[in-house]
Known about the structure:
By secondary structure, the chain is an alpha/beta fold. It contains 15 helices and 15 strands.
Amino acid sequence: MRDYELTSATLAAALADPALESMNFLNEIASRYPGAISFASGRPTEEFFDVAEIHRYIDIYCEYLRRERGYDDAMVRRELFQYGRTKGLIHELIARHLDRDEGIRADPEALVVTVGCQEAMFITLRALRATDRDVLLAVSPVYVGLTGAARLVDLPIWPVRSGKDGIDFDHLAAQIAKARAQGRRARACYLMPDFANPSGTSLTIGQRRELLEVAAEQDILLLEDNPYGLFHDGEHMPTLKALDRGRSVIYLGSLAKTGFPGLRVGYVLADQRVLGRGLLADELSKIKSMVTVNTSAVAQAVAGGKLLRHGCSLRAANHRETATYLRNMRSLLAGLEDRFTGSAVTWNRPCGGFFAVVTTPFPADDAALEHSAHEHGVLWMPMRHFCTENAGDRQLRLACSQLSAEQIETGVDRFAAFVTSYGPTACS
Ligand SMILES: Cc1ncc(COP(=O)(O)O)c(C=O)c1O
């Protein structure tokens, strides 16, 4: 008997898309060079991981169910062990966090607690993609998880240039006009106003207000993704959602960095009204019910306990982590300053978040990365992986969140050695 064989032509076209390979590419190269210092991965610091805390958080959550919600023991057990509410169990605690940390007044009923922010992106894009005339605008370079999710629901992404300042408004207007001229519809624009992944840039308050005006005038939604916004050096800009008076903003949240990635808990705040139906969140929950049924009750109990332990402030819960990230960013930027000032290499200077971007005088592509890993033991992320259009060839992303100060120092030395030896060969 012959083995059953498939061809990629008989599978979803998105599976051949490079966006769906990017995460594997990074894991693969990291596993081939285990001794390399990695500026490639934007994982959170492991300095404060503590298994005992997981048990404590579950206890705190169960105690809250008994005290604040009046549950008896059987109800507590059922909440943890059974299938649960599709829109989630900790929506009220997340609403308290949004109020405390972001000044967002969220109706808990407008929240869907998801399996990471990744599921929030997927179900939101699935709902917004109504016809093949729809396109999604996204400030470019774009987070690969968003690109992959859009591909999987057959929603084309049209990039909006970020320019130097985080968003190029002329290009945004041009892309919306181009969509109209082609009889297509720009459904929404995806962006990260705070410490964007991968660009590290943040929008000014003026840009945020202008963007909300454009969204209202042009009748498009804004998809605000905000996993890094709380890791700042004191000056905190209001999120788009906090400024949103016309329900133009769908807010995507992740607890991967403010909680921990192993939780796989995120959420979407979708308070838009759907005529004759109810809230957009309720439509999203129908999709969720057919994808993951509900988010793990155990994971939500841990997340809920962490929120309760810190008065529902994830900013307070993360003061040690924030100090580590700010220290790391300062070390990275100082290291680049020491080695590259006056050279053809330039970089941006984010005042928070996980990422900085370096511009090189040579193509910073996969071949350059391979050389950097093999010859110099240092990894970084080619910007090309975040660009849906032909751009980003001479840029790379450095993530400093998971490293120690010593590793950053050694890593920047290695990175400088790579640039010095590889640059002239690549340019000649
Ligand atoms: C910008 C951005 N959005 C969403 C996510 C996904 O978050 P989660 O792990 O909660 O699915 C990430 C993860 O790195 C991210 O960087």
